[in-house]
Amino acid sequence: MTQTLLSISDVTKAYPGVIANDAVSFDIREGEVHALLGENGAGKSTLVKMIYGLVKPDSGSMSLRGAPFAPANPSAARAAGVAMVFQHFSLFDALSVAENVALGMEHPPPLRTLATRIREVSETYGLPLDPGRLTGDLSAGERQRVEIIRCLLQEPRLLIMDEPTSVLTPQEVEILFETLRRLASEGVAILYISHKLEEIRALCDHATILRQGRNVGTCTPRETSARAMAEMMVGSTFATPARTAHAPGEVALEVEELSLPAPSAFGTALKSIGFTVRQGEILGIGGVAGNGQDELLAALSGEITTNAPTVRLHGAPAGHLGPAERRRRGLLTAPEERLGHAAAPDMTLTENALLTGADREGLLARGFVRWRAARAFAEAVIARFDVRTPGPETAARALSGGNLQKFVIGREVLQRPEVFVVNQPTWGVDAAAAAAIRQALLDLAAEGTAILCISQDLDELMEISDRFAALNEGRLSPARPAAGLSVEEIGLMMGGAHDMEVAHV
Amino acid sequence: MLRLEKRPQPSRIWTWATPPLAVLVTMIAGGALFAALGKDPVEAIATIFWKPLFGEFAFYYRPQLLIKATPLILIAIGLSLGFRAGVWNIGAEGQYILGALTGAGVGLALYPLDSAVVFPLMIIAGALGGWAWAMIPALLKVRFGTNEILVSLMLVYVAEQLLAAMALGPMRNPDGHGFPGSRNLRDYPSAHNAEIIEGTGMHWGVAAAVIAVIAAYVLLSRHILGFQIRLAGQAPRAARFSGVRPGRLVLVCLGTSGALAGLAGMFEVAGPAGQVSIDFNVGYGFTAIIVAFLGRLHPVGIALAGLLMALTYIGGEMAQSTLGLPAAAIQLFQGMLLFFLLAVDLLTNYRIRIRKKEVA
User: Fold this and answer.
1) Distance between CA B151 and CA B252 in Å, rounded?
2) What are the φ and ψ backbone dihedral angles of A466, each rounded to 5 degrees?
3) Which of B241, B244, B348, B354 to mutate to test the interface with A (most CBs of A within 10 A)?
4) CA-to-CA distance for B174 and B114, rounded, in angstroms?
């Protein structure tokens, strides 16, 4: 078949207290889409940073087309034909597309020439993009195109993509995959990092799986089930969440005509949102990030108050109540951002348990904190949700993302919410922990809690939701029964792809 | 090559080791400064830190220590609550002045009434005066989103003008032959903040400072309000999520620090100072900011830091008179203390690693 493009052999990189990569070896061939799989902290980012010249390996070597390859910095890597699209975009909102592209180039041509080149590349690869548009007006999918085109202009031999689909609608993902397949057919190798296993099965030719810094195996994704790949990532088998059938009860949470101006320049305004959640029911809300998820959560948690009747709890107006009063009435929330929002980074787990549990867990006596009870509550959360930590006196920021997520979800679940609103419950959490969290949500619903789950992970929403609705630019689609919804229907509910028509020209 | 590496958790050892280390580094740098001024550095440092406590005239200086430390501690305790919550009251000096004016005002208005209620009324008036002055930046911040740092600081200068106007006008001693300054409260037993134990410097303000230290300690470590104060300072978004109302916290923190600064001013004017005069305030409100940080914003730490800072005041005066050190050099010395503390504080959250040059 084709030649080896990049060969990585015995690469090791240690940070104080952790070996990020332990003698990792694998090859990437020209024209293949190669997946790099692994849980958070498995060492994917470190490996990619070494290829892109951001980090130097402690030992081991890399070779590019047979020649030794040790980029001292990203510009050396780019000169050698390695390009990377990061998960987080580095674009200036106030500049045009062409200007942003020029900023990322070593020797940018005049803007007019560049604009022509951008048009050519965007047409060749089916990535519609107007070089004259202001970047601030672009959707997340279009911003990603800017980054991709910036890379393609360098005519790379190897294109690294870090979690590229987390900000895209299903239709936009399809467009991206078409582009990547076309690039691969032209001989460009693509290193694709993701933990969305179904996508990898659809796109990638080979997969290398990392676990705790080691290469634990390779597979051909098309011939391997998503479950088998997940188990290779985790290194053990885990249970798929099981749901028991039960009839939903009375309406517990009712939102009507909820409109909010954007809380900040980068926020999203909510526009007449309305839905109901019944006892024992899970309503899943999908949508691409930045379409009003944070604002909706804030309006439900009480961080932003509204007119009393817009939010009703068990029929009683609650829109004017603050977070503490809503908690007292049984409405608990778990925001997406763990550090700094759901938990205070420098405080201990005991203190973080007090943060939302003070009232419902009876941790106060006439305003004085019962620290022993708070500690016991924190210990209960740690034990029940298998939080890996030395103990409740550890600072929240010392926990890994997944463990802290288990803690903040567990903290609310153990308080027996009557209505539970959660945003991105399994974001950045490993597969086994994600399964445990989903199971906890399902168990909670089975006991009669009304659950609103906001997530960008459609597989997750399909797995646990009874009904599904999508947020798009601050508007919520009507909720539909989740069973039987097709990916296309979901995609259209999420607003479809921007500039779809152009893409199919 | 030196490199800084963030610690996963703040170091407990360094949290408490940095203030003594900062004192040590200040002594070294201060010694160098004094040497550059042509003084013997060892003797200068000894004069500041040792002689007031154990020297020939210690019997005179030791009571001074409590007298100087009391306003610093009272004010710093109040400030520390706000600083922990991210509410920056820089205008304690003004609240201190207002407390002195209202406290002394009540005393002077009741003169020559001989009653046990005079002094308690003055205490309440002093606290209220400081509180009201602090409420100006607090309400402006809550209502209009103004910056409390600027407003509270600017009100210091307003307070100083008010002090001068009072000393020259309404509060001037009618029997004072036209000299500026009020009646001396030391000559009015009902209003005098006398020593509780003769010759120790222990006046009623000392008792108030001790109560403030204990109350602040209990508040911060045991009460939900103290938890909310810490939470708001460390993670404002998490605090809102928890249900803390930021506006209420601003009012509580600025109000408390204002009231404590007002109390400090009242105890000072009724005791050690004795009268409202143009040069009544000597910068305790600003020095207390250093005391608060030097004490790690912790009540016990603040008590120790207040005593240490009082020592540099007294020792500094001694060094001025015996060694002829300029007053500016002493102020510089005190300022260095905060400067070095902030610098070595880095060690609490970072560790220094020596890195060999990497082979490319």
Assistant:
1) 17
2) -90, -40
3) B241
4) 19
Structural domain boundaries in chain A? 4-234, 251-501
Q: What distance in Å separates the CA atoms of residue B185 and residue B266, rounded to the nearest whole number? A: 11
Residues, chain A, total?
505
Among A257, A172, A167, smallest CA distance to A475 is for A257
| Nearest residue to A345 via CA among B86, B85, B235 | B235
Q: Is residue B130 part of a domain?
A: yes
Give the residue from B4, B242, B252 with the most A CB atoms within 10 Å of its CB, the best one to mutate. B242
Please state the pTM of the whole predicted model: 0.79
CATH number of domain containing B212: 1.10.3470
**Residues A454-505 pLDDT 10s:** 998 888 888 899 999 999 888 999 999 888 888 778 878 887 554 443 344 3
What is the H or E stretch that residue A136 is in? none
Residue that has been written with the tokens 């939701």 in this structure: A465
Cβ proximity of A295 and A268 under 8 Å? yes
Q: What's the complex ipTM?
A: 0.83
Note the CATH number of domain A251-501.
3.40.50.300
The answer as to whether B10 is a domain residue is no
Which residue, among A189, A158, A148, has the nearest Cα to A71 in the 3D structure?
A: A158
DSSP secondary-structure letter at A446? H
Check A70 against B227: CB less than 8 A apart: no
Q: Hey, of A50, A75, A354, A368, which one would you mutate to test binding to chain B, going by the most B CBs within 10 A of its CB?
A: A368
* C-alpha–C-alpha distance, residues A478 and A146, integer Å: 33
Q: What is the pLDDT of residues A371-388, one digit of tens each?
A: 999 999 999 999 999 888
| Contact status, residue A71 vs residue A55, Cβ threshold 8 Å | no
Range(s) of the domain holding residue B195: 40-324
CB contact under 8 A, B5 and A322: no
Cα–Cα dist A499/B7, whole Å: 47
What pLDDT is attached to residue B136? Answer: 97
d(CA B193, CA B232): 37
Rounded Cα distance between A363 and B227, Å, is 12
Which tops the pLDDT comparison, B243 or A137? B243
B234/A contact by beta carbon, under 8 A: yes
SS3 of A197, please?
A: helix
User: Residue B232, Cβ neighbours under 10 Å: how many?
Assistant: 25
Q: Residue A359: left (phi > 0), alpha (psi -120 to 50), or beta?
A: alpha
Say yes or no for a CB contact (<8 Å) between B231 and A347: yes
Gap from A371 CA to chain B (nearest CA, Å): 8
Would you tell me which CATH number, out of the four given (1.10.287.110, 3.30.450.20, 1.25.40.10, 3.40.50.300), belongs to the domain A4-234? 3.40.50.300
Q: Kindly state whether A391 is in contact with chain B, defined as any CB-CB distance less than 8 angstroms.
A: no
CA distance B352 to B6: 9
Instruction: Give yes or no for A492 touching B (CB within 8 A).
Output: no
> Could B227 and A301 be called an inter-chain contact, meaning their C-beta atoms sit closer than 8 Å?
no
As beta bridge partners, residue B202 has B197
Count the domains in chain B.
1
What span, in angstroms and rounded, lies between the C-alpha atoms of A38 and A196? 10
- The residues near A133 (Cβ < 8 Å, ≥ 6 apart) are A96, A97
* Distance in angstroms (rounded) separating the CA atoms of residues A134 and A130: 9
